[in-house]
Amino acid sequence: MSWKKMMLDGDAGGGPALKGTVAVDPPSITKASTENVDVSVSGVLTTHKVYVQCQSDLENGLVCIAAYCPTNGTLRFRISNWSSSAIDGAQRTWAYQAYT
Predict the structure, then answer these.
(1) What whole-number distance in Å separates Cα of residue 32 and Cα of residue 83?
(2) Which residue stretches of the chain are H helix?
(3) Are 52 and 58 contacting, i.e. CB atoms less than 8 angstroms apart?
(4) Helix, strand, or coil here: 4?
(5) CA distance readout (Å), 62 to 15, 25, 85
(6) Would you write out the chain's pLDDT as a tens digit for each of its 100 residues?
(7) Total-model pTM
């Protein structure tokens, strides 16, 4: 398989259209629930494919199940609490890459 076949559709340059870091501070999430956490990211578009990675360990029970751009300029993290009690996660730095 060639490198070009591994690139995402429309990504002729082989790299992200945008990349950076953002601070994400989830609210207290009740047990067995999911919350959306929105952060502003200039230049991110609804057409972008977004990849995110937390730069440190999340609290036990918290999982980021999705990240996407619901409206231009907004990056949304869907964070689930799979534990049996509420968790108020700490603010953490997340890296993101957005591809066209």
Answers:
(1) 6
(2) 3-6
(3) no
(4) helix
(5) 29, 12, 11
(6) 344 444 554 455 667 889 999 999 999 999 999 999 999 999 999 999 999 999 999 999 999 999 999 999 999 999 999 999 999 999 999 999 999 8
(7) 0.84
Which positions ≥6 away from 82 have C-beta within 8 Å? 32, 61, 62, 63
CA quadruple 88, 94, 99, 100: dihedral sign: positive
Residue 49: count of CB within 10 angstroms of its CB: 16
What six digits make up the tokens of 69?
């751009």
Per the structure block, which two tokens stand in for 22? 């953002």
- 80/84 Cα distance (integer angstroms): 12
